[in-house]
Amino acid sequence: MKLSLTQAINAGLRRALEDDPKVVLLGEDIGTLGGVFRVTDGLMKDFGSHRVIDTPLAESAIIGTAVGLAYRGFRPVCEIQFDGFIYPGFDQIVSQVAKLHARTRGAVRMPLTIRVPFGGGIGSPEHHSESPEAYFVHTSGLRVISPSNPQDAYTMLRQAIASDDPVLYFEPKRRYHAKDEVMLDAPLSTAPLMGAARVVAAGTDVTLVSYGPLVRTALDAASAAAAEGISIEVIDLRSLSPIDYLPVMESVRRTGRLVISHEAGQTLGLGAEIAATITERCFNYLEVAPVRVTGFDIPYPPSKVEKHHLPDLDRILDGVDRALGRPNSHSGMED
Amino acid sequence: MAHSAMPLHQLVTASGTRVADELLDEFVSDLDDQTLRNLYEDMLIVRRIDAEATALQRQGQLALWPPLLGQEASQIGSVRALEHDDFIFPTYRENGVAYCRGASMGSVLGVWRGVSNSGWDPYELNMATPQIIIGSQTLHATGYAMGLVLDGKESLSLAYFGDGATSQGDVHEAMVFAASFQAPVVFFCQNNHWAISEPVGLQSHVPLAGRAPGYGIPSLQVDGNDVLAVLAATRWAAHRARTGGGPSFIEAVTYRMGAHTTADDPTRYRGVTELEEWGAKDPLTRMRTFLTNAGKLDDEAESAMAAKADAVAAELRAACINFPDPEPLSVFEHVYVDDHPILARQRDHYLAYLSLFEGSSPAAQGGAS
Ligand SMILES: Cc1ncc(C[n+]2csc(CCOP(=O)(O)OP(=O)(O)O)c2C)c(N)n1
Ligand SMILES: [Mg+2]
């Protein structure tokens, strides 16, 4: 069945609500309205307002009460309306959700799923286009994932809800309307693991790693490069915590060149961690230093200039050129 | 209904009749005819600004617009009760307030066109730029008021926020601090009955104004579609603030007649009955009836007002359409006060990158795909 990314998430939520009576949804405007992106469309009608809960406007309370529900054996799925509105709930996530299992020596589990539409490119005002994933990757005790396509969105959401660990589920909102084939009935037992990265385009010259909204851009870059005779291997990380390094290492051992791209700023972003780890673990295979193509270390800019902040096809190809040491890149700037 | 438990202060009824209010009357006893007409004119102009901006959004000239239709009296009555050196902390919806503070139309629209993250200089207007993080600004207003006390200044701050915002922890913490330090801050809540799709009854089982006394903050509920009553109520709170009385809380009971923003479709969550009911309480109609019946508004004055509204609308449209796009490298500006070598390096690299495209493909202009 062809589904958009929002429809795939909707189907995943529906399936989880059907399969497990302990699954409850919490969020602002998720009930009657069906969410500002319509991701939860129809769910309150079908499962009732006791399971699809429009909450008062308070993110700390959404996460904090989900912790209490989890204490009672519920599996809360929280929606944060936009990336930039997660911070009032940050304390509950970092101080409680992430740490309760370890704090209680395993006695208390926090099987929360926290859904966060994230990333830019949608022409929105401030706080609506952020990429805050690194804060959560940096926080031990949380799993962090980001699907790039409808099938993964569906499968990984179900896996996240089934997981006994808390999972931050980052939805690439600018890809919400991208449609693709989704198999709704494939058993979870045969699906790729939630934590597994995937090679989405095979190649031999450069390894290009990305996730979420930029996977599409990375694939487009690979096609464009192929026309010039450059073969790019594209890896969709899917899971940001833990990062599945095996396919990345395997690829880098063949290509010797690594480019990492994400919308989030460069400093201490995922690219920094991946570059460090691959340098540690594949040092002898690298022909050049890993290249990062990322957003700048700036507050998310106004929408008229967001295109300058966001890595696009050209900037990714420039990064590829740098990794290949090609002269037309601005790779000379090694200051 | 959540709002029957407190007296609703009113000076002009929905049908335009002046009624007495023991608390509020004295706060409007000085108003002359011109001042009354000005209040009406402000509302008329602000409604026009709102309609023009909504149209510009439809025409693709603005990315988004949060209509204030129906809330004109709440915004005008409150801001016109303040002095220039009183400091305002608004939300994204207080564009009528911004107009009254002297904001140029361009400075109001920049955020909604996507050319900037704020419009005006807060110190010029004594008004912070629009806050999008719900409730945050109530703490800022409280801190500003604490600063006024420390500086021995006889002035105040006023925070605007919505009914939905009253659920945020920040708003409650602001009230705790304001009471604890007896800060001269006015909490001005526009209860427009909706937080996007959520009705106010989801946020509170008691009148919103009923919460403040629990923090030791005197409060009142005022008809938010009655510009005179809102003006009087805000003067009441401002007087308390200026004379060492500390914080106050006003709940202006009004209604969001339009969508939450131009991206919203309210037909998904509310019926027309409510709209009709509130349409009959329209703030402009009632003020016009009141003024006309009292012989304070004639055709000549009305056409002068209409001409002024036309002029403001024309200014707004021109400012919007003539907005230059920001320079690419502007994204690196003002992140820090002092030099930041890492950011400077990123900027230099991006400049070098852009220059690769000079004279060649327009792809250099970027384009998130
Ligand atoms: C912290 C935070 N959470 C969520 C949002 C998304 N959001 C924007 S406006 C809004 C509703 C606000 O309702 P209310 O406070 O009543 O103000 P109104 O829009 O009615 O003026 C929501 C949930 C936000 N801007 N900030
Ligand atoms: Mg509201």
From TrEMBL, chain B:
<keyword id="KW-0670">Pyruvate</keyword>
<dbReference type="InterPro" id="IPR017596">
    <property type="entry name" value="PdhA/BkdA"/>
</dbReference>
<keyword id="KW-0786">Thiamine pyrophosphate</keyword>
<dbReference type="GO" id="GO:0009083">
    <property type="term" value="P:branched-chain amino acid catabolic process"/>
</dbReference>
<dbReference type="GO" id="GO:0000287">
    <property type="term" value="F:magnesium ion binding"/>
</dbReference>
<feature type="domain" description="Dehydrogenase E1 component">
    <location>
        <begin position="42"/>
        <end position="311"/>
    </location>
</feature>
<keyword id="KW-0560">Oxidoreductase</keyword>
<dbReference type="InterPro" id="IPR029061">
    <property type="entry name" value="THDP-binding"/>
</dbReference>
<dbReference type="GO" id="GO:0016624">
    <property type="term" value="F:oxidoreductase activity, acting on the aldehyde or oxo group of donors, disulfide as acceptor"/>
</dbReference>
<protein>
    <submittedName>
        <fullName>Pyruvate dehydrogenase (Acetyl-transferring) E1 component subunit alpha</fullName>
    </submittedName>
</protein>
<dbReference type="InterPro" id="IPR050771">
    <property type="entry name" value="Alpha-ketoacid_DH_E1_comp"/>
</dbReference>
<dbReference type="InterPro" id="IPR001017">
    <property type="entry name" value="DH_E1"/>
</dbReference>
<dbReference type="Pfam" id="PF00676">
    <property type="entry name" value="E1_dh"/>
</dbReference>
